[in-house]
Amino acid sequence: MQPSETDWFFYLLRTNRGQIYTGISTDPQRRLRQHNGELAGGAKALRGQRPLQLLYQEPYPCRSSASKAEYQFKQLNKQQKEAFIRLKTDGALASSPLE
């Protein structure tokens, strides 16, 4: 699926503590900049965990389907989440400093 201007994305970030943060957005790169404090509007919970790294993003045709993907990911346990990231990124970005 080719991203368009109206696509929603499910995205995964890794904090400087190795935790995984999930979100949805129409512009994951902008959200990353917001979360990292470069732009206004990032999640307050992430302020002490910068810099953040974008691990993965996947386009969806609407907000509802992106939200469903985020919910499904949040239902996984930690090992399943790490396996998902390794599978989707070929292990290139999956290493956690806590492991």
UniProtKB/TrEMBL annotation:
Which keywords does this Swiss-Prot/TrEMBL entry list?
A: Endonuclease, Hydrolase, Nuclease
The family database entries (InterPro entries) matched by this protein are listed as: GIY-YIG_endonuc, GIY-YIG_endonuc_sf, UPF0213_domain
Check the record and name the CDD domains matching this protein.
Answer: GIY-YIG_UPF0213 (cd10456)
Q: Name one GO molecular function term.
A: endonuclease activity
Q: Which residues form the GIY-YIG domain?
A: 6-83
Q: Which domain of life is it from?
A: Bacteria
The record's family statement is: Belongs to the UPF0213 family.
| Name used for this protein in its record | Putative endonuclease
Natural source organism: Alkalimonas amylolytica
